[in-house]
Model the fold of this input.
Amino acid sequence: MSDVKQKEAQELVSGLIARARAAQKIADTFSQERVLELARAISWNVVKPGNIEEIAKLHLKNHSLATIRVNTENFRKNQRCCKRCGRS
Done:
């Protein structure tokens, strides 16, 4: 990796770490109920209709382990699970 790319990567990671630490300070003030609500919202955004195909495409692009159809079917199974569990 060139020095320029390495520096860009380090800056990106440093920025992400700073954002994560700021978010953690905010989350530290949340009640358990609020943490569960946040976790459900994050989970739903992963499996909700419309996002499934995009996540499958991203996974395929990064890993090339399966087809978009197979990845989409797997994400749809997770979506059905969330609906059954009342997390929609």
Summary: The chain is about 80% helix and 0% strand.
